[in-house]
Structure formats: C-alpha cells, structure tokens
C-alpha cells in the first residue's frame, strides 16, 4: 500500500529497551475537541525494538497539523504488514488515542500499513530475530560429576526436546568418559524429563535407554527425535564408522524408552546424489502427516585437507521410500562467520514460515569457533539467512566458553518457543543451556 494522501504523517521512533524517554514525564500535546479531517495527521510511536513473535507496544494518535490531539476522533485503526502475520490487526481509538501490544510472526525488512477512516499510509519497519536470552543463567542439564564413573559422565551431547503430556522429554547422546572432538564411539542414548519447562531435569530412567550393541552401531551421534500424529516416537541419528563415511539411521518407539531400529532408512554412504557421497549426518526431521517426513541433514565434503559442510533435505516415508535430495543452505562466503561450514540444523514450522537454527563455523569443525545462526523459508526448500546472524554465541565466563553445539526448540506452556542447546564449558564436557524469548507472545499463542 502506498501513501495516497500527502498530509498523512506516520512517525516510528525506535529506542533500545531502557533507553527511551519516560512518556509519563514528557510534555503531552494539547487536546482539541473537533477539527476538519482534512487537516489531521496520524502519529505512530513504537516503544522498543521489534522482534519476531514478541510483542511491541504501538501508540497511535490523531493529531492536528500543529500536533494537538483530536479528542473527538474515534474508530478502528487497521494495520497490515508486507512481512509475516500481524496480530492483532487493529487497535481501537478513543478520544484521539489508541494504544496496544502487537506482534509480527517473522523477522526482516518490510512495510507497516495503517488505515483510519479515509487516512492511510505505510512505513518501513525492521523486525529482528527472536531475542532468546539465558533463563536460567546456569546450565540446566549436566553430565556426571568430574572424576565420577556415571554412565553420562562424558557430558550431554545433541539434546533433542519433545513436549509431551504437560511436560518435556529430552533425549541425548552420552558416554561414561569425555569424548574427543567428533568421536561418538560407544555413545549411548539417554532420556530426561522435566515438569517445570526445562529448568530442572530428572534422568528417567537413570541408565541408557538404548545402547550401540542393541542398535548394531558403533555409537549414537547427533540426534533428532519427534512424534508423529499417531503418537509414535521417531529417532533419526548419525552413524559413524571407521570403514566408511558417516550416515543416518532411523528407529521408533511407542513410549520413548524402548526403541527398535526402523528399516525404512539406512543411509550409509549418502543419498543418490554425487554431492552426498562423502557422508551425511546431523539429521533434523519434520513430520508432514500421513507418514510423510522431511529430513534436513549435513553434507560432508572434503577437498584435499579442507572439510566443509552444507545442508541438504529429502522428503519421503517408510512406506514409499525417499525422493530426490536437494541442497538447501551452503556454507557462507569467505570471511563470514559460517564460511567454513553449516551443520546441525534444527527445523520447525511455525505460523506462515519454516524456521531453522543451525551451527556455523568460520573455518573448521572446532567447537570453540562455532555459533548458532537463524534462517527462514516460505516453503522449506529455499532459505534466507537472518541479517543479524549469528543469534547465539559462546559467552565468556559461562558454560559455553569453549563454544556451542546443536539446538532443539519446543513450544512452552505460555506459548513461547524455548531453545535448548549444547554448551562446551572449560572441561569440554557439554551441558544443556536453556534460552527463552525475552518476552512471551501475545495471549500465550505462538
């Protein structure tokens, strides 16, 4: 929508949280009882930054050309956006003033449109990626104590969180000694549960729920766990081998504790595409319904002594097999934070978008150089990186001082989407860290 009436003025004031002027202490405009609508203008004031899926406060005033509030003016101010879904899409004006919280479903640059009677206009806006902050500051799930002989002493690798029956389940890979970088030999599958939104966790059971011997693998690498529409748990996991490139296998469970291999997927040497033949790993799977899945995965490429990783995707089912693979996100350009590789994607669908968190590194696979980036897509095949990447980085003095690993997200009780990811502390035995949006969504819906 373009501005058709030249006397409309729409103002947008963006202030960092805590840095804006105190409106209660500012000088209010004079008020007037009536005025010719042809001499009116709209003033819009935004308090704070705009983040996707997080509320922002918008104040709307009907003013004279001299800046006085027209108290006799009332009605519905209708809004539209060129990016994402806007909620709510209107505010009620009374006595020349309307104020309320609104929310946009996606990040990016676009236009905010407003209509009030015969008045309308547009304004450029910038919406940032969700502001995920540490909550709590400490890590939420750790391996066994130092020098202990506990079965998860080696730390919590590749957390995969699933919401179930009012609580959360977390599946992870671990072993009783600290792992070397990229070594998942003898890693077992573990499970923990939480009833307080992932702040405290209990191992349930306090023993591995699946072992390499039972699964017929050398160890469990990176994981993706989800439930389909029938309630069946599905596990997709990386398989490493000394005899060939890494691959991906599937398993299923009716209760999330007793697992059995699912023969519908055993990708040992890549899919039927030349660019996957050096190995595929790091699955992230989305259930599409009717037994159909879409799986995202990392593609390992080695040229000389240099290894890079990119992201691919494939769609299929256990009943009908898997279709053609497609490359969906390549490592970044030289000099960028993810120029070395992109890997360990976590993909989900939310409102009108496919969304992704992924691990990126500038030059190699070392966890000390890794961060987490964000990308979005209209169809799940063509992806656009966020301009503010990376969105999660290691923090000095905290549990990810040596880097961050793959993330998993889930919808929480208040409707917000929490992020659980791997942090590497000074002893490099990974822990799980929780981040939450800095403010919950409107009406608990996300």
DSSP strand count: 31
CATH homologous superfamily grouping of the largest domain: Glycosyl hydrolase domain, family 43
Rounded average pLDDT: 85
- Rg (CA only): 25 Å
Count the domains: 2
> What coarse outline follows from CA principal-axis ratios?
elongated
* CATH fold assignment of the largest domain: Tachylectin-2, Chain A
How much of the sequence is in beta strands? over 45%
Q: How many strands, which pairing sense, and closed or not: the largest β-sheet? A: 5 strands, antiparallel
Q: How many helices in DSSP terms?
A: 1
Task: Please give the CATH class of the largest domain.
Answer: Mainly Beta
Describe the structure in brief:
With 446 residues, the protein is mainly β. Helix content is 1%, strand content 46%.
Secondary structure blueprint with pairings:
Elements: E1 31-32, E2 40-47, E3 56-64, E4 69-70, E5 75-81, E6 86-87, E7 90-93, E8 97-104, E9 108-116, E10 119-127, E11 132-134, E12 157-164, E13 167-174, E14 188-194, E15 202-203, H1 212-215, E16 223-227, E17 233-239, E18 247-253, E19 260-267, E20 280-289, E21 292-303, E22 306-317, E23 321-322, E24 326-329, E25 341-350, E26 353-361, E27 370-377, E28 383-385, E29 404-411, E30 417-423, E31 431-437
Parallel strand pairs: 1-4
Antiparallel strand pairs: 2-3, 3-8, 5-7, 5-9, 6-8, 9-10, 11-31, 12-13, 13-14, 14-15, 16-17, 17-18, 18-19, 20-21, 21-22, 22-23, 22-24, 25-26, 26-27, 27-28, 29-30, 30-31
């Amino acid at each position: 929508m373009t501005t058709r009436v030249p006397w409309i003025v729409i103002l947008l004031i963006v202030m960092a949280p805590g840095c804006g002027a105190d409106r209660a202490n500012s000088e209010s405009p004079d008020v007037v009882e009536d005025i010719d609508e042809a001499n009116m203008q709209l003033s819009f004031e935004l308090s704070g930054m705009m983040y996707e899926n997080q509320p922002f406060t918008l104040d709307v005033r009907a003013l004279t050309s001299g800046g006085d509030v027209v108290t006799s003016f009332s009605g519905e101010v209708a809004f539209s956006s060129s990016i994402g879904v806007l909620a709510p899409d209107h505010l009620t004006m009374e006595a020349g003033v309307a104020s309320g919280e609104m929310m946009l479903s996606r990040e990016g640059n676009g236009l905010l449109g407003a209509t009030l009677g015969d008045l309308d206009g547009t304004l450029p806006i910038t919406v940032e990626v969700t502001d995920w902050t540490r909550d709590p500051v400490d890590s939420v799930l750790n391996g066994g104590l130092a020098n202990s002989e506990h079965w998860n002493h080696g730390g919590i690798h590749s957390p995969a969180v699933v919401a179930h029956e009012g609580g959360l389940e977390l599946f992870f890979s671990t072993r009783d000694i600290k792992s070397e970088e990229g070594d998942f030999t003898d890693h077992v599958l573990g499970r923990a549960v939480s009833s307080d939104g992932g702040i405290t966790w209990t191992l349930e059971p306090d023993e591995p729920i699946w072992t390499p011997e039972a699964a017929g693998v050398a160890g469990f690498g990176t994981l993706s766990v989800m439930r389909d529409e029938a309630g069946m748990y599905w596990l997709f996991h990386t398989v490493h081998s000394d005899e060939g490139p890494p691959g991906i296998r599937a398993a299923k469970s009716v209760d999330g504790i007793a697992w059995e291999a699912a023969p519908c997927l055993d990708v040992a040497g890549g899919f039927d595409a030349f660019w996957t033949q050096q190995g595929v790993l790091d699955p992230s799977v989305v259930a599409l319904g009717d037994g159909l899945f879409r799986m995202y995965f990392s593609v390992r490429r080695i040229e000389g002594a240099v290894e890079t990783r990119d992201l691919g995707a494939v769609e299929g089912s256990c009943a009908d097999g898997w279709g053609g693979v497609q490359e969906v996100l390549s490592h970044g350009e030289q000099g960028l934070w993810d120029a070395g590789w992109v890997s360990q994607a976590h993909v989900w669908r939310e409102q009108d978008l496919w969304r992704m968190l992924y691990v990126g590194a500038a030059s190699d696979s070392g966890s000390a150089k890794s961060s987490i980036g964000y990308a979005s897509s209209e169809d799940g095949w063509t992806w656009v990186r966020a301009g503010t990447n990376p969105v999660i980085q290691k923090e000095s003095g905290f549990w990810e001082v040596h880097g961050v690993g793959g993330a998993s997200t889930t919808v929480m009780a208040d409707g917000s989407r929490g992020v659980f990811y791997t942090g590497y502390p000074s002893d490099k035995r990974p822990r799980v860290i929780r981040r939450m949006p800095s403010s919950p969504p409107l009406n608990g819906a996300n």
